[in-house]
Amino acid sequence: MDLKDIKAIIDLMKKNSITEFELERQDSKIKLKRGLSGGASAVQYDEPGVPVIQTIAAVPAGPAAPVATGEIEIKSPMIGTFYRAPSPEAGNYAEVGTEVGADTVVCIIEAMKVMNEIKSEVKGVITQVLVENGKPVEFGQPLFKVRPN
Amino acid sequence: MTPDAKILSALRAHPAGVPGAQLAEVLGISRAAIWSRIEELRRLDYDIQAGPHSGYRLVRSPDVLHADDLVARLGRTRVVGRDIQVFEQTASTNDVVEKLARDGVREGAVVFAESQSKGRGRLGRRWISPARKGLWFSVLLRPQLRPPEATQLTIVSATALRRAIQAVTGLKPDIKWPNDILIGGKKVAGILTELSAEVDRIRHILLGIGVDVNLDAAELPAELRQTATSLKQEGGQMVCRAELAVAILRALDEDYARLNAGRFPAVADEWEAHCVTIGKNVTVLMGDRTVRGRAESLDDDGSLLVRTEHGRLERIIGGDVTLEK
Prior knowledge:
heterodimer; A: mainly beta; CATH 2.40.50.100; 5-stranded antiparallel β-sheet; 4-stranded antiparallel β-sheet; 36% strand; globular; B: alpha+beta; Arc Repressor Mutant, subunit A; BirA Bifunctional Protein, domain 2; SH3 type barrels; 7-stranded mixed β-sheet; 14 strands; 32% helix; 29% strand
């Protein structure tokens, strides 16, 4: 099943006001949910109202979980808003290609005015920034990919 | 307590005066040493009179923050204010306390500055902190909470700050979600909470608190005069900063103790009772996204539930909330 198929299912769900969809095949299993923004179920989403895509075999929450490619994901320890820089005028903490150490701050997650500076927790190079500045993130959501060195 | 703190504590406990001999006995130092400490306090503008019968009597305290005096006024607390430092000027009290935190200082340490050169709010916004006009301070806490529960400190600190301001000034402050303190719709105090956490545990939390106490309108930048105010402007008289400082630390200590004793719901109820955002039409700015609607209620974790123009319920956990008039 590819992205096109998933989109088609989502369109059908929207059209028919279906809020949950589950499909199991030999090699895969997907579950789609539409609902309120900021709910606890989302693993990844763009905007409220847009369906939430959740893979059943999701990597358990917690930062720095290894992914198949040998890269490591930095995950959000809490629900909140993702900020790439300490202030709108300042430069981003980390870009693709930035060398990070375990104590390097890579972003801020804000929840109810609590500013949480997220550290890389691993030494390596940032290979991907997975969330846009100012977007809401969920507990356990991957924020960056790091190639350890 | 230092000798100065003990002397000020004794003088405040006995407004009619304390004989030098009695002070000497309590402190375990000579009467001559007491006299020289009193002289030192007079040089700091404490008006201390001495009479042959009444002994030493504190007539007036200066409008300065003096660590020994704050300790003397505060007395014993469980956690908050166990150690107090006052700087004449610093860049940001949160930066000072952050360093203390990294050095392993125990929770409860408080750092005040008479003025800050780089006082800041969230996302690098400037916090105006002119000398001796307000309370600019930071508190170090190390709560036994998981990182997502750190938002409870937002509720604890706003509740304590609101209660203390009301107790000292008699004004009626409101809380704007989640932790701004307003009087008559204008901001009078703000809290910047900075968290340092590992995956499953909080290393420390810094509460950076700014209270506009005795600022005149002219001391606020023109663009803030419509939205910000001070306790003096609202109450029509100067407020004793040291008295307010101590009341805030005591209230924080009480509410932090309530949190640690598993009574967070009671704090949250008090917070909700004074949260003026509920029932108002709001605009929420989150990065490049804007949500407009009516703030309906608070979720169990304190997040704001907003019914949008399209009838959808949005759960707001961050961003800038503006109350529509």
